[in-house]
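Objective 1b: paired records.
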Amino acid sequence: MAGIRVVKVGGNELDSVAFCEGLAGVMARAGERLVVVHGGGRAVSAQQVALGLPVVKVAGLRVTDAAALAVVVGVLCGNTNKMLVAALRGRGVNAVGLSGVDGGILHCKQLHHPAGDLGFVGAVERVDAHLLHVLLDAGFTPVLASVGAGAAGTLYNINADAAAAAVAVALQAEQLEFVTDVAGIVDGQRVQARLNISQVEQLVSDGVIRDGMLPKVQAALQAARAAVAVRIVDLAGLESGAGTIISVG
């Protein structure tokens, strides 16, 4: 049986119909067992602004109070998820949309961040991959919005990069790809084709990797340490094999 490939799609790109259609085209040609994990940061921020709610981020993570959580759940599990599912199905990918709450896929606890209180932001404690396996075995491509739930049923906003890494590790995926709006990890004005874990950690320590790229790289390191092949890439490089590969050694 073919291995599993997890593709995380950046929230800043998902409000572009052209991006979704381009992504769908690449996935339709892949012919693999795929799981897609997505956020929806730009659309969430736009909706917060439209409602007069502040948009606050700490260390690249969205501060999520009760009002912001309602926006996150509505946007990610609603329009963003269904737009992506529709684009995939329009290209012949047998996609089905769900969230980390469905089937208890993403079990969370509140994330306590050293930089401050983030509110209803969750850290993944456990992944129950049973439903994902059922869907994959039935020929579906799960499209997973990065919202999870705690033991008491509390909903949490989960950083989509962290969710994708946790899912990839739980599925023992052959590959995890972070598709974003940059071509890879840039050092010295050049995209680095391959970096090992210690090199990436040094770039973080030196401040080369920072801001919104930091959660993505931290998630990539989590998966790489669990022996999942990781690549950070943009849409243009997804099919060509470009981007930055992060390896153990």
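Objective 1b, second protein:
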Amino acid sequence: MSSRIYTVSLKGSEVKVTDDQLSEFAAMYIVSDEIRNRISELLWLDLYIFDLKFGVGPDDVLREIKNLESGEADPQTKPASQFSRKPLKGLWHKHFFSAHFVPHNISNALKGGVLEKLVNKVLDPSKSPIITKEMISELSHRVVHEPIEDRANDNKLTGEWIVFAKHNQKNYYLCCNTHNAGDQMIFDRIESHCPRDFPFVSALLASANA
């Protein structure tokens, strides 16, 4: 039986990956056979592309999958939630976090004038007529480290989505996608590829969109 070939079109480039390459790639990562059997080939393709093109390590995603399997004990990202609108209604999503997403999380934490207030507070002339090294160090910590620490403590770290389905009281991991990919695009990818691995997905999608 010939290998299946995936073609992924990105801005300015095209990547072709065979299912044999994906199998070799997946074998590099430590995942129990029980969980591995519930991860679609499409999700492994996404991990391959994320790693190759964006520097997002598969371990960042697999860590969140393991958290889901253990009941999300001590999560730092937003809890898993179910899509409520068609066409993804009935499916679930979970954020995963990578250092690649640090700038985005800092931006979220400092928007709405928070950065300006922070700068004015730390560099307050009433504290010192000149800007000291200590003030610069404090500002650096409060702008870069504090937002990440606070968002982690509040379970608000955001990255991209792991999309999964629940079936017979188990999670089946379908794909990874960016927030701006669009629900219809995510649906189309799942509908085109995931029923091959998990036949129940076709009925689940059809039922949710009836």
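Residues 151-159 have pLDDT under 50 and may be disordered. The chain has two domains: 5-98+159-208, 100-153.
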